[in-house]
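Researcher: Next sequence.
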Amino acid sequence: MKIIVNLIQLTVVAAIIYPIFYIWDTDKIEKFCKIVEPGMTKQELIQLADESSVKMLGPIDGDVAGGKWQATIVAYSPYTEYSCEIKGIANSVAVAEIIDD
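Model: Next structure:
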């Protein structure tokens, strides 16, 4: 019986905390995506991501001949596809946009 009560308590706490964490995490991504400017260098982008404490995947070179690359800022919270996709050419950012699937 005590185990069941503990599981119910854990579920209630998680149900309260997760939405707050989700809102905080997606807001952080949205703010980051807004401050990324076209023309920024890759190094400036990486440094900004480190300073902002966001989770960045990339930059990944997509088209070596054309010099295109892509980076994605993803959420720490599980069960969300909210992200900021950043595309660039050569050594500079071309566009940053929010992806909300």
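Model: The first strand starts at residue 55 and ends at 63. The mean pLDDT is 89.
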